[in-house]
Amino acid sequence: EVQLVESGGGLVQPGGSLRLSCAASGFTFDNYYMAWVRQAPGKGLEWVSSISMLGDWTYYAESMKDRITVSRDNAKNTLYLQMNSLKSEDTAVYYCARDLSPTGFNSWGQGTQVTVSS
Fold first, then answer.
1. Higher confidence at residue 104 or residue 60?
2. Closest CA to 3 of 28, 21, 25
3. Exposed (0-12), middle (13-18) or buried (19+): which is 117, by Cβ within 10 Å?
4. pLDDT in the model for residue 103
5. CB-based burial, 11-36: b 16+ in 10 Å, e otherwise
6. Spacing of C-alpha 96 from chain mean position
7. Which of 4, 33, 73, 100 has the most CB within a 10 Å radius?
8. CB proximity list for 24: less than 8 A, separation 6 or greater
């Protein structure tokens, strides 16, 4: 069974940092591109970042590209998202997913809440 479990979210002040993690199991992790996608309150899903199978290619949404770094540790079957200089508009539930672009994403995790507020 494919499982993705996100962690690392929480309440942080504007300008702060968080590192999200996504533990993967039930599939061959390094056979897949992986992605982070977020959903802000009352809004639709927004793609944030993707990373290639070996981590040598990374892709970022324009809205966050100067403030985030995606990485992966294939030995640990874990995906990461380092987020810096957080803004209130970054408040959202952050999900990791297998990136099957251009088809889309599948095998979502349960998400981790990130709240940026003073």
1. 60
2. 25
3. exposed
4. 84
5. ebeeeeebebbbbbeeeebeebbbbb
6. 5
7. 4
8. 2, 3, 4, 34, 77, 78, 79, 96
